[in-house]
Amino acid sequence: MSTSSSSAKDRNLLAVIGDEDSITGLLLAGIGHINEQQKKNFLVVDAKTQISSIESAFQEFTERKDIAILLINQHIAEKIRPTVDKYQQAFPALLEIPSKDHPYDPSKDSVLKRVQKLFGD
To answer: Could you tell me the residue range of the domain that residue 41 belongs to?
Structure first.
C-alpha cells in the first residue's frame, strides 16, 4: 500500500497536448515544466504536427511518474482516438478539454462514455 501511495504523492505536474492558444494560456497560468532530461510537460500541436508525434507524446506523458493529470484538446484527441480510448489507467488522469475554435462535445469524450456505460445510460 505504501508503494502506491508514495507514487501518487510524486505525481505533481499537469501535462498538456493542445493547440497554441490552449498551451499559451496554461503556460501563463504556470503549468510549464522542463525536467533534468530537458523533457517538457506540454506539446503544441498545429496543422504540421504529425499524428505519430502526438501519439508518442501521449505515450510519454502517460508513462511518466511525475504527471498527475494529462489535459488534451478534444479535437486533438479525435486524431488519436483509438489510443485515447485504449487508455484505462487512473494516473495520470486523462481529461479532454475544449479549445477556442472547437467546442466540447460530450458524445466524443472517452471518459464520459465509460462513466455512462457504468451507469447504464
So the answer is: 2-119
